[in-house]
Design goal:
- 51% of the residues lie in helices and 4% in strands.
- By secondary structure, the chain is mainly alpha-helical.
- Helix 1 (25-37) crosses helix 9, helix 1 (25-37) packs across helix 12 and helix 7 (127-144) packs antiparallel against helix 12 (235-264).
- The radius of gyration is 18 Å and the shape is globular.
- Keywords: Disulfide bond, Endonuclease, Glycoprotein, Hydrolase, Metal-binding, Nuclease.
Length: 283
């Protein structure tokens, strides 16, 4: 595993009590496995030293697992990397972010993604630093596709909104983190087999986007999810929302692959075809 983060990498962020876990471990692993299925061979070679012997699906949960680390960065500062709070689409101003591999503070998930991309694209950063930001990037791309990670600050992205799911008390954020994904009773590999696609039309549509678009997608979905009615969710909620869950997981995996292919394989036509590894090995 990657060494404990050094003070060089610690960013001074405001303390928050926000619960920032997103998707269950299975949810993140689903995204990681889908991404792995769509990497080009060149990208797979390039990320090998960044994986440090792990599989991509394993790496995606690292940023949450490290929160057990007693260092202040992991206990407090890293939390803001996982979410963004905006009250309206007009409030989100991507142009205000000035992020490079050695400049720019990580204040939210969007700046965290930009920072990770900048570090990985730069030839002037160490392997250790790239390993850190690679692991974070695989996680943050998953997080931003969980709609409540672009939720409202006043309710901590739905953490304060109590609901029941088949009679069990939970909250809106946790329901979307874990409850819906786990209700399918599938392993992450089974889930991937059910939802992954090789359809170039779907892949191209999902890739015709940028991280700023993913933020707004989640924001708009979250705004609809706040209409909880009586907050007692059963089969009707699964029927209504499971297609959204599956689409966000699939989008997260394909977009993570597209992003990694763009960073590490300059010959990859990521806006046209990200079938990558599967296609190349089926020829």
């Amino acid at each position: 595993m990657i060494k404990q983060i050094s003070s060089l990498f610690i960013v001074a962020l405001t303390l928050t009590t926000f619960n920032v876990t997103a998707w269950s471990q299975n949810g993140h692993r689903i995204i990681g496995k889908i991404a792995e299925n769509h990497l080009t061979i060149e990208t797979r070679r390039a990320i090998y030293p960044l994986l440090q012997g792990d599989k991509l699906a394993e790496v995606t949960t690292w940023a949450d697992e490290m929160r057990s680390n007693p260092a202040d960065f992991w206990k407090y500062d890293s939390r803001k990397w996982h979410y963004i709070n905006i009250s309206s689409a007009d409030e989100f101003k991507p142009a205000k972010y000035r992020i490079t591999h050695n400049k720019g503070e990580v204040t939210d998930i969007y700046s965290g993604i930009l920072k990770s991309i900048a570090v990985l694209e730069s030839p002037n950063t160490s392997l250790e630093k790239k390993q850190f930001y690679f692991r974070f990037l695989t996680h943050l791309v998953g997080d931003i596709h969980q709609p409540m990670h672009a939720g409202r600050s006043e309710d901590w992205g739905g953490n304060k909104i109590k609901v029941t799911f088949f009679g069990k008390e939970t909250n809106l954020h946790s329901l979307w983190d874990k409850g819906l994904v786990e209700s399918e009773n599938l392993s992450y590999t089974e889930f991937v087999e059910f939802i992954d696609t090789k359809d170039p039309r779907i892949i191209s549509r999902y890739l015709a986007s940028e991280p700023k678009d993913w933020v707004l997608e989640s924001f708009h979905i979250a705004e609809e999810l706040y209409d909880i009615g009586n907050g007692e969710f059963k089969y009707h909620y699964v029927y209504e929302q499971m297609p959204v869950v599956k689409e966000r997981l699939l989008q997260g995996g394909i977009r993570l692959a597209g992003l990694l292919n763009k960073i590490f394989d300059k010959s990859a036509e990521v806006q046209v075809n990200a079938i990558g590894y599967l296609e190349q090995n089926n020829k």
